[in-house]
Fold this sequence. Notes:
This protein is about 55% helix and about 0% strand. By secondary structure, it is mainly alpha-helical. The termini are far apart.
Amino acid sequence: MSNEVPESEQPSDGSRLTIYPNTAPFSNSQDWSHVELRNQFLELRKNYQHIKEENLALKVENKTLRQVVHTPTFKAYDKLVTTLPRALTAPDSSGLAAAIPSPAIPPLLQSDYPNVKFWRKSTYTSHMKASAGTTDLHRGPPQRGHARMAGGINVKMLYVEDKNGTPVDGYVAQHIREYARSIWNNLAKVGRAPRVWKRDGNAETLREYWREMGLRFPLLRLCESDWKADQIAIDYYPSWTQGQLGMIKMKLEEHDDPLAQARRATSRKPSGKRSLAISRLAIEFNAKKQKLEAPGPSTSAKPQF
């Protein structure tokens, strides 16, 4: 004979529980009372419900983790974990920036920006060739490039345009040049600035430059294969390298020639005791120089030709 469990204590999954006092697996003793069996049942039911809740929580956690594994963020993290040990042991002086590639920016589609005139570089090149053979009778006397830039006129970056095909003004063009130079300065600090941009620049350096320019000025991404950011480097990187070489030469000369240091310090318009000290330094240097060049008592001066 069986004892039905009250409806309020039945499991929520639809199954039915019944107590069989004579066949209970808890003990070999047959003299258990109804109260003892009921207490055992309630304890087992409590454990069952707890295990059921844990199982449900684990299923939800497992499903969530499966979704996270397939997200781009987790994939990027997994890539970082596999790359970081190599970066920490890499002998490259440029550090992590050279070991871990920067994530690429997805290219824009020309079909989404139909008003952009110079999506391809070949289109801009053809346009400039055609414009070179035309003249404007109503145009005034030509102005120098610096004067036009000072007036907010875009001189050489007519290919940088907004989504409506309108070229940026000279002030925006100036900001673009300044930011490009700041990137090149950072590359020079870590020894990664190429001597000639297209010839000596490695793929990672070029991609990093394109990415940084595109993030700061999204207008530069309105093109095919980042040619607009690349064109800025082609036009202005040579003058930047010349400026860098000039600074290096000046530092070397100042290091070897105290008089050059004095002249440079004088150009900064020093005053008071500093100016007097610089003048004395120049006089002492000239005196030592003349003494070294003067012939000794047992030698004669060399003939001058």
